[in-house]
């Protein structure tokens, strides 16, 4: 078993665990149109990265072999048991709620290979489906059976995380209207918009299981790998062939979206607004994208983003030294590395 | 001091208490456009009915004179103190979040005499402002300082309330597309969409203060007066002069919105779809509305709605017999009666 195999196995197991319980955790009850809309993206798949990180983080803390324990009766630090899957599902639900509302804001048509919720249903249903999942995420985090004082802290962390995701999305929208954004401002935005949910996923097991000393290092791990994950997403948009990416390569450039690559390139004097002439993903050519990527490479911006992502992974995985040295911890390190090595 | 004066005084005091703390409870911090949007409807005013009911319910349970205690250090059943205002603000924030998202769904332009958030700002900002308030409501309910086991129960009630509000709104949208809706289906929808937040406001003090025996009667009070409140809203749309109502009288009829009055009229064989010819509130005449109201009166539908509302108030206020007999309880009874006597 190579280390890379092992990470893939762990990701596959986490994905399977989450997929297996979504039907019972988010049942379709009346009003059915609402719950079918709420389930639309959950059913469309996804890597379940965040809940998988939550499960592995718990296993690292409990010092048990990955996949060896029933997640519904998972051992706490003081000899009790909690429903860890309920917490994992909570995190996946938050992710799904933000995708539904983000797709409305970005007016995106497709997500996970299926129509966005506001396209498959309508605007009102999509807003409501997101709002319903929002409450469901809190209900799931309340249902782990953890001690009340730990549940209160977990809920506070979850509410704070939701607030920060909204703030990050708001900064993202604000930045699109601004003339200049620095790399640091961009990364601060990514931390809020993307990384805090990774941080919540990684650190909430420490809170609800009672491993208080591990909350901060795991939160830091989540922030670092979450930021690296977003930077890698930005890079993949430039470097992964269209057929593998599932959308037009370079679409961020065409749509004028800010990424760490273009923010850096602008700081180097590149006219990033005019890197491609086409203003539609339907009319842009591969040659145009190739030329734009060449210019970004010459400016050192692709290398810069790659290095920032790698540095974040080194720092983030290093924080795991505070945890017991076991296989689950190694897998969390491996997932960090996977996030910047993945090709889609 | 007449009883009616007293209710008005209590409502005015509650309104003042909530208004006085909104600046510090929901501060405008970066990203400012997000928080200005989140504050837009909160700043536009409103009766603060639900948080006022929460404060009075707590005073009835604690058996203290209305307005006599500092709401920031309010006495619990076991001799402790909690921040009751934080809970009251939480309820007002939930109300505000649902108004922002509902106005998008209904494509309403005006609310509380100011442009709806998606009109004053834009769609994305309005969705995000609602989402931000959603998290803030949970943060406020987590910040009362109540015992963890009570806070967990309060949060569960709050999350369940949010889920039900979404379900109610979804049924409301679904009903508009349906040929027929019975009075009972309509009232079940109103219970979810409107009444559960009154029920949460009334019963959460019992949960967080530790008066467990009063949770159910206060919840029932909230459901009953909340349903009556909505029926009265429907009636006012037909009977209150346009200038007093702040919008065109009869606009529900023009827009084809279902109300208990029209649902009943249809059950009596009235062709409610064609009660008014105009399909725009700009072109409808007072004479048209008068004729429609006459037909609804002849069908007994206005009297039916009025009786249902009064019956609900009698039942709801009767539930308060489970509470200590004091001035705060009388005021909760008086607010129930006020809700069906108010003229706007």
Features:
4 strands; 70% helix; two-stranded antiparallel ribbon; homodimer; 344 residues; Farnesyl Diphosphate Synthase; two-stranded antiparallel sheet; 15 helices; globular
Question: Can you offer a commentary on this structure?
Answer:
The structure is a homodimer of 344-residue chains. In chain A, a hairpin with a 5-residue loop joins strand 1 and strand 2. Chain A is globular, with a radius of gyration of 20 Å. In chain A, helix 2 (32-43) packs across helix 6 (123-142) and helix 4 runs antiparallel to helix 6 (123-142). The first copy, chain A, starts with a helix and ends with a helix. The mean pLDDT of chain A is 94. Helices cover 70% and strands 2% of the residues of chain A. In chain A, the strands form two sheets. A two-stranded antiparallel sheet of chain A has the order 1-2. The first copy, chain A, has 15 helices and four strands. Chain A has helices at 3-25, 32-43, 49-62, 84-106, 117-120, 123-142, 148-177, 183-209, 215-239, 242-245, 251-254, 260-267, 286-298, 301-318, 327-341; strands at residues 74-75, 81-82, 110-111, 114-115. By secondary structure, the first copy, chain A, is mostly helical.
How are the elements arranged and paired?
2 copies of one chain form a homodimer.
Chain A: H1 3-25, H2 32-43, H3 49-62, E1 74-75, E2 81-82, H4 84-106, E3 110-111, E4 114-115, H5 117-120, H6 123-142, H7 148-177, H8 183-209, H9 215-239, H10 242-245, H11 251-254, H12 260-267, H13 286-298, H14 301-318, H15 327-341
Antiparallel strand pairs in A: 1-2, 3-4
